[in-house]
Each structure stands twice: as structure tokens, then as C-alpha cells.
Amino acid sequence: MQATFADSPSITETLPRQRKPSLPPGAFAEEPATPEKVLFNDGAPILVSYDEIPEWYQDNEFIRHGYRPVSNSTHACFASWLYLHNETVNIYSHLVPAVFFLAAEGMFYQYLQVKYPEATLSDHAIFAFFLLTAVICLGLSTTYHTLMNHSLQVSELWLRLDFVGIIVLTLGDFVSGIYMVFYCEPLLRQIYWGMIISLSCITIMILVNPRFQGPRWRTFRVCTFVGTGLSGFAPLIHGISVFGFAKMMVQSGMPYYLGEGGLLILGALFYTMRIPELIKPGRFDIFGCSHQVFHVLVVLATVVQLIGILSAFDYNYNHGECRLP
After folding, report:
1. Which listed site, 44, 47, 118, 171, has its alpha carbon 20 to 30 Å from 212?
2. Is 291 within any annotated ligand binding site?
């Protein structure tokens, strides 16, 4: 079965509606056009190959086909939700979960009211905040993958906003985690909240400020990004020193944090190593490429984190010293 699959044509070669535009030699499909002209040729959506898109649009040489032409049209970009191309899975793998997490805002409020009738306004707010950060992150990612073929300027803008979304979700992770670690220690909560909010704001300003763009500032941007993520170890280590490892495992939901981290690391490995398309270029143009695997693992990690927050809250609600009579 594997040999037969490997020898068969790539899925992009068998797309019934794929068309290639007629381009002059050496030219790219980046001239402004109406959405209808960009999207369709004799009723079929136009898709182009890696070699037919401009250099700024080229990101993964192992994804050979299925690209939308540069459109210079927001309408054309969003209309591409309606047909299959090599960003379809990237779009829907975050669009659908974003809608789910948005709907979960109301569902979690009702769930907490029923199962934890004495939950405070702060308890409700923590869950609402985490879900909101997930919606923002996934929504910005969806929009970036939708608009990445619009133009160089729009693509660069939304790529930066995509990174901002990652920081926002990281903020949601840490704010909720710190709340559970120091559920009965409001002063420590506020200190660590102040730290992570400050670091997140600094990182976001660096990501969106044009002054810090370009290769010269690449290392600086990466360091601030990584530094913000690593800062999450500080409250965990502090919590272990105060409460002990065994109690922290249940009080903070640490096993779920570790699971979340493992999924994110696995996703990053797929993303950076570009597996499986590296092994078989062109085979995973539409389905199964590394970026799609990364997207799915990010969503799974977010779900694991949400379960961890709920598990930690259940422990603190029933055993927290500040709740005991």
C-alpha cells in the first residue's frame, strides 16, 4: 500500500479545478486584478506553482503546487475559503477551533455556575480570559493565512499580527496558570501577573514596531519572544519551593502544562524540519504538510491547557486554604 501511494500522482496534480494562469516568461502572478479574474478562469479557481509566485510569497520549497495567485484584493482572499488550495487546511484548522472557543465562553460560564456555585467573579473571569486569548490567537492566525497572498505589505503586517496572537495566547496561559498556582496568595499573583503582562507588552511592541523589523533585529526579536515564554518557569519554580512538588502537581495542573509543552515542542519540530513534505515534495501540498500538523498540535495543546486549568480549579475550589471554613 505504501509503495502504491508513493508512486501515485500528487494530490495537487489531480485537483479537478486547478488551472494555471498564462504568465509571460519571468513574470509572477502579482498584478492587480479584479477578484473574479484572480479567482477563476473559465469557472475554475486559478492555482499556481511555487516557481510562479514572487520571492516574498515563497516560504516552503517542498510545497510545490496549490498556491493562490497574488490578488491585491481582500475580497479575493476571503473568497478563497470556498475552494481548495494549499492554505485551506491552515485556515480551517484554526478557524473552526476559534469559533468553538468563542462558543465555549458561554458554555463554561453555565458549567461553572452549576458545578461550582460559589465560584467567584475572578474564577469566571480567568476562564473567560483564557478562552478569549485562544480566540484572538486562532483568529489572527486564520486571517494571516487567508490574506498572505494579498500583497507583500499586507502579508508582512498580518504575519506580525500572527506572532502577536501567539504572545496573547501565551499571556492567557500564564495568567490562568499563575492564578491557579497562587490561588490563595493574591500578592504573589499580582507580582507575577505584572511581570508577564509587562514582558508580553514589550514583546508585542517589538513585533509590531517597524524599527525592529528586518534581518538586523532578528536575533533581538527571537530573544524577546523566547524570553517571554521562558518567564513562565518562574512562578512554577516559586510554587514548588513554597508548596512542594506533590501539591503543585494537583494545585497548578502541572501535568497538563507539561503535556501542552510537549505538544508544542513536537509541533515546532514538525514545523522547523518540514516533515513530511521534505521526504516527498509535492505529495503533501494540500493535505498533511508540516504547517498543518503544527496547527493541529497547537489546538490540541490549547485544549490540554484548558483541561489543566479546570483540573487545577477543581482542586483549589475544594481544597484551597482560603476556601476552607
Report:
1. 171
2. yes
